[in-house]
Write a structure and sequence with these properties.
single chain, mainly beta, 4 helices, 10% helix, Porin
Length: 522
């Protein structure tokens, strides 16, 4: 019998081997389909040593980042703000509407990035603060009629019954630096590195530039090596860099009684402030010279454009600053000094955190009167309808000395003084309004709106562990007005500060302010 349809034993074995192999490949393929795809290697955060401690590479990039900040709690005694003297408003009234204390809690956050390029490092820097400040009487009522007072009570969300902000956000710095250029919000190039704090926490120290909370600018800085640099800057000046441009023709008795010698008639922006600065910063200390040009651009004489306006008038400011480091009194001890002169650019002497009007009351007055009061006001220029601007001159200085007792304790003494002087024409404008509006007893002969303003203080800091500091800063502030001795004025009812219409003696005034602070940096 023949079996022609049967395979040979050799062919049968071959077929079985191929079938088994195909089955194995199919099984492996099925198993492979069930396995996850191979993931990329995890990129861990790496230390970036190019720019100092605290920098790390952002994973997957060549950019380094540093996060920093602080948490601060302030208690300020005898003030309605943090950290200013009782110099005006309800604080200056020194009555039941004035805060005995003001409390603030604040968190600061900074973000610093650097990227190395063929043009040098590209840097971005941001610093913002989140603050909660206790409330106070906002001056909406007389304080005597039920329902008329407005006290800003703390409620969820930072909203109170009054108009004083509690929860707030501040942007201090937001700038880009590239190839010598700085663009954005940063400390003014006019200011010394310590701004308005040569040794203090007190905000109201005259005698030089400030802008610690930053100002918009376009700056180019040339680095000549050996710590020598020079900067040219165009800086925003409306309205942060201007005190007042007073239209004295608009003065009212109520305004004069608060130290406002006219309506503040600042026009819209026309030109930025132009600044030139040179600095030598070496191991022994620092020397800096700064110049600023400031355009005073007023609005109109009256309520509309048909009334006309004064022409623009440029003012200027100059400052010299000196820092001495590691002086013989101790390791890390420093002396910081600055002096400023301005003509039509008052903010470069009275820093941007300071008030521009002063109305400080005292408890004693003339026998036939009610109380005493010190009145004064800052301006860049003054004018009356139909006339040009008259620039205001100021000059002053400030300084601080810090001594380190040991790594945990240091004490500093500081002070500042500044003078405000008006030309004869400007005095005539102001005094004409002042005598008529407030019935100055000594008349034109006894009228002088010039004044001096000064502050001295003592601060002690304790740092029990690194980056945790407790501070006590006591400041004494003085207003030296120049109206004739014994002069009186007749003030109208000032319901916002509960002062009655009465006769007040014009007199020098002073006040004490104490800051207690706890701060943790990170």
């Amino acid at each position: 019998m023949t079996f022609s349809n049967l395979s040979s034993p050799h062919q049968t074995i071959k077929r079985l081997v191929l079938t088994s192999a195909a089955s194995l490949f199919a099984l492996e393929a099925a198993q492979a389909a069930d396995l996850p795809a191979k993931s990329k290697a995890i990129e861990y955060v790496r230390v970036c040593a190019l720019y100092g401690a605290g920098f790390y590479y952002i994973p997957g990039t060549d950019t380094c980042i540093k996060l920093g900040g602080y948490l601060r709690a302030d208690l300020v005694l005898n003030s309605n703000s943090d950290f200013d003297p009782a110099a005006n408003g309800v604080a200056g009234a020194r009555n039941r509407l004035s805060n005995s204390y003001t409390w603030r809690s604040r968190e600061g956050l900074s973000i610093d990035t650097r990227t190395a390029t063929e043009y040098g490092a590209v840097r971005t820097f941001f610093q913002g603060v989140f603050s909660w400040t206790s409330g106070g009487y906002n001056g909406a009522g007389t304080g005597e009629v039920a329902g008329a007072t407005t006290y800003n009570a703390a409620v969820p969300g930072g909203q109170g019954s009054g108009a004083i902000a509690q929860g707030s956000l501040g942007v201090y710095s937001a700038f880009i630096q590239f190839a010598g250029f700085t663009v954005g919000k940063a400390v003014s190039q006019f200011s010394a590195p310590w701004t308005n704090y040569p040794a203090n926490e007190y905000d109201d120290l005259p005698g030089g530039g400030g802008w610690v909370t930053g100002v918009n600018q376009l700056t180019y800085t040339a680095d000549f090596g050996q710590g020598i640099t020079a900067s040219l800057s165009a800086q925003d000046q409306v309205v942060y860099g201007t005190t007042n441009i007073w239209n004295v023709s608009g003065a009212t008795a109520a305004g004069l009684a608060t130290g406002a010698y006219g309506t503040n008639d600042i026009g819209a922006s026309r030109s930025p402030d132009l600044i030139a600065m040179t600095r030598i910063d070496q191991a022994w200390g620092l020397f800096q010279a700064s110049l600023a040009a400031h355009d005073n651009h007023a609005a109109y004489y009256g309520v509309d454009e048909t009334t006309g306006h004064p022409g623009d008038k440029w003012g200027w400011a100059a400052q010299l600053a000196l820092s001495l480091k590691n002086i013989p009194t101790g390791i890390g001890d420093t002396i910081n000094l600055s002096a400023a002169y301005t003509n039509g650019a008052t903010r470069y002497n009275f820093n941007d955190l300071m008030a521009t009007t002063y109305a400080m009351y005292g408890g004693t007055g003339p026998a036939s009167g009610y109380q005493s009061v010190g009145l004064a006001g800052l301006s860049d220029s003054v004018f009356v309808a139909g006339a040009g601007q008259e620039l205001t001159t100021t000059y002053g200085f400030r300084g601080g000395y810090t001594h380190n007792w040991d790594p945990q304790w240091n004490t500093a003494v500081y002070g500042g003084w500044a003078a405000v002087r008006h030309g004869s024409t400007a005095k005539g404008y102001i005094c004409g309004a002042f005598v008529a509006g407030l019935a100055l007893s000594s008349g034109m002969a006894g009228c002088n709106p010039d004044f001096n303003y000064g502050a001295v203080g003592l601060v002690t800091r304790w740092t029990p562990i690194r980056n945790l500091t407790f501070t006590a800063d006591l400041a004494y502030t003085m207003l030296d007005q120049k109206y004739a001795s014994g002069s009186t004025v007749t003030l109208p009812l000032l319901s916002a500060v509960a002062k009655p219409a009465a006769t007040y003696e014009l007199k020098d005034q002073s006040t004490l302010t104490l800051l207690l602070r706890a701060q943790r940096n990170w």
